[in-house]
Protein 1
Amino acid sequence: MSIPTTAAAPLQRLALLLFIAWRNLWRNPARSALTISALVGGLIVVILYASLLEGMMRQMVRYATEVTTGHLQIHRQAYIDDRDLYATLPSDYLAHIEHDLPTLHVAPRLYAAALASSATTSVGALIEAVDPVREPAVTTMLSHLRRGEASLGLSASTSSAASRYNVIVGAQLAKNMGVAPGDELVLVTQAADGSIGNDLYRVAAVLKPLEPNFDRMGVLMSIEAYRQLMSLESGFHELAIKLDDIGTLATDQQQLVDELAALQRQQPLDTLGGEAVVRNWQQLTPAVADMLQLSRSMLIILGFIVVGLASLGMLNTMLMAVHERSHEFGILLAIGMKRRWLLLMVMWESLLLALVAALLGSLLGLPLAHYLATHGIDFSASMPDGYDWGGIVFEPVMRGYLEPSQVVQACVLTLLVSLLASLLPAWHTARLKPAEVLR
Amino acid sequence: MALLTLEGISKRYRQGEVEVQALHAIDLTVAEGEFAALVGPSGSGKTTLLNIIGGLDAPSSGQVRLDATELTALSEAALSDFRLFQLGFVFQAYNLVPVLSALENVELVMVLQGRSDHERRARAEHYLELVGLKALMHRRPAALSGGQQQRVAVARALAAGPRLVLADEPTANLDSENAEALLDSMYHLAREERITFLFSTHDPRVMARAERIITLRDGQIVSDQRPHAAATA
């Protein structure tokens, strides 16, 4: 025990164990290759699934924010509770917010229920009035046209040659009413002053499917046209807001809350309509937020299942390898190797197997995921146009999205599960009795 | 002065339903520098005794001391250290780690001991030269003959600087030529390095080279002779 040891002795031991483990890995190349193949296959499945899921989630978020909703919305509480026609935000709130928070893009909106009639039929309709100038800065809804042009102004090209306001209608509504761009429809509603509001409008365009309710009932018009139809001179039901960076959602939401509090102090709101409330896209579309959370959980569960199954192959390999080398381990224990070093050596072997698999899996998985991101999988033959699930419209071509951090996470998962699977053979090794195995 | 002292070593173990008495109250002392053989027929208890001396097995009763160290009182970790720093082992066959070269095998124990790179390399080459295998030191065990592998095992045992080398039938799988070469290596190293060798055998060639022959039968020492001393006298 008087041998002088170097300060680097523990590191040298670790390096030796790693060195022996690496050499042991290639003792039976065919068996190691098979085990690595199983892990590589599992890793590629996880990478591709994660890529497709990420692509789908990003599409869902895009639809939830960019197409119609925006990142944040402001309403009066009574409008949220009862869709109260009179629960409006003062018109000058828009100007104040735009002035005080210039980084936010704000679009005002108004809503009303109506009866829409064409030459052949009448259906219930949901009017959404937007500002054709501000709306494109917040959402892309006006550019999602299937047919026609995004015009909400007055048009003279009508059957009676009188000027009519243009409207844009939902895809399913157009189909149900049998209307197309250039056709006319009548909207009848109860105006804000209690009178019956009605007018004739020209269909300027038909939207692509955006959101199931809007597809069935939606009629887009300008705020100017809405005010004339509804006799509502001022105010907005909704202010939709887009941020330049969704990463600042929480701080921007808080800034808006503070801004509204200040505005309400300067210009108190009527009590009937309740307070002005700011909600983010996750609060506005909880189904989407829940589905995102569910998808992430599913990814983790699937990852564990796939990598866990692949690791069973590794467990089998390691148990066989350990069993075959009992005599050798007995020799190592006899010459003074501690049990914990043997344990570490077996775990090193598993970790090295998993590392090689992670490297190969990433090298093969990344180009495949890239292909999915650029070409996608085309479901248009089997998926009806505007297919939605739980209110979320899906594009017919499902594209992946390559998120490098997910590849890293999948590799870490493979390493962790492999390390976990190595515990049994390592424990088995550490319990060997040298006198028995050397017999 | 005795390097190794065994007092009342007994070993019983169960084999199925039967209790086997492998060793009966063995008393033995081995002096520093002795080149001693444990002989006896198969099942006489040679390997069991060597395992107990090496701390690979525990006696049912009795004490084993190397100098002042009482082995039976040591913990598992302390026993590992004891084997690492004080003992050398040579087994019948398959002594070496197959994925390491002869040189790496010899260095292995010294890495575990924590010796420096330079010292390890120098000692490993020195002992491989002494057993006549320096030219083959980069070969792996599969590329060495059985005798060469056993000589590498001897070099490994000695390079670690042990007080006592235990060898369990080291020539059992060797032909005459290789057995002679191994014995020569062991004997000369024992003499030059003043290292104590205790080996089990039933090979007459090995017995002929031993300075002391301890005969075991049915787990008991039945004779303890020093043939060369008698011849000299």
Note: The longest strand of chain B covers residues 2-15.
Protein 2
Amino acid sequence: MAQVMKNQGKVLPDDDSADLREIGFRSLDFSELALRVEDETGDELNFDAPGLRQIATVGDVLDFLLQLQSE
Amino acid sequence: MSDAAVIPPSTVVLVSGGSRGLGLAIVSGLLADGLKVAAFARTVTPELRELAVKYEGRLHIGSVDITDAAACNAFVREAEERLGPIDGLVNNAAIGQDSLHVHTSVDQIEKIVNTNLTAPLVLTRLVLRRMLAKGLKGRLVNVTSICAQRGYSGLVAYSATKGGLDSATRTIARELNGRVLANSVAPGFFASEMSAVLGQTQLDQITRRTPTGHLTDPDDVVPVIRMLLCENTNINGQVIEVDGGASI
């Protein structure tokens, strides 16, 4: 996640409760992150948009990725 | 315009159906402009092989059926290993039709939809996923047809697939906002290739009704595709018709 933000000249805050809108992390940034995770794990992470819309914080992103990988 | 909003010109372009007709002209034109190109088709023609020799190191070619997702995946990986990350895609591969809808077999309808709509969507998904995974921005050009805008007998399934691709273009432009410029180029009827199935009488009629007085030639279309891939135009989610005004 830090790398995705760094590529855009942004910094990932340490606080897991940081609001994604405030730090400029958009839905396509999540897609980029998910695809990077796919590259690492070798498994496709497909999901519907409603699940993505519920993500609001940095912690939510990490939780959602873990949830996808456990499915 | 902020840097974040600029989608840079494509440098490595994947062209489907690049072995003859418009596809070959696209490949040739992009190479002449200094771009790197990966081109595949079901059959690699001698003309495409000649280009591969002429532009050794800048053109990667292969015999791939666009409906074979695994083969497409393998080709893209090979191409990127040889040329670098793909940041441009031209969905050009398609099969034609020359049959009234009521006399077109269900199998043939499925084949047309699979080749002209499903396969390009799957290939687009593949390329976009690879772009996003690398944090790249890119450009997409779907080659559709004026058939998507106006009705022509004998082309029901074909027209449906081209209209579907135009719709997908608009949605991709919205969905990939800030990452991808997506547009369609909709040529009119060519005097050769798929248009040959229309018959001379129908072609003559179309020619008479075209303000410029001539049917579309691949050389009319290539500059538009090159512009969408290489120029900073801010054109996004559009269908650009290249038909001499036949459809106005």
Note: Residues 2-70 of chain A form a domain with the Non-ribosomal Peptide Synthetase Peptidyl Carrier Protein; Chain A fold (CATH 1.10.1200.10).
